[in-house]
Design a protein that fits this description.
Blueprint (H helix, E strand, L loop, with lengths): L2 E3 L4 H10 L10 E3 L3 H9 L5 E2 L4 H8 L11
Parallel strand pairs: 1-2, 1-3
Helix pairs in contact: 2-3
Length: about 70
């Protein structure tokens, strides 16, 4: 499943680094999802299964019932 991120921005590298804690590197699939508002819209419209968001976009998705992928090892 591709995870939408910003194009070679902080979210691109943060998503990869965070996901390495819970997924093997060969299973991490990031794809350019546009700027933060485009990634938010893609999630709301169900055009994306996962996206790296933060700030306002994160809070909107949280209020709509979307879940965060925890990157902490158990």
């Amino acid at each position: 499943m591709p995870i939408q991120v910003g194009f070679h921005s902080g979210s691109h590298y943060t998503a990869i680094q965070g996901l390495e804690a819970v997924l093997p590197k060969d299973q991490i699939n990031v794809a350019f999802g546009g700027p933060p508002d485009d990634r938010l819209a893609a999630m709301i419209e169900r055009r994306a299964q996962a996206a790296c968001v933060f700030g306002v976009q994160y809070y909107v998705l949280e209020q709509l019932g979307f879940r965060k992928i925890s990157t902490r090892r158990l």
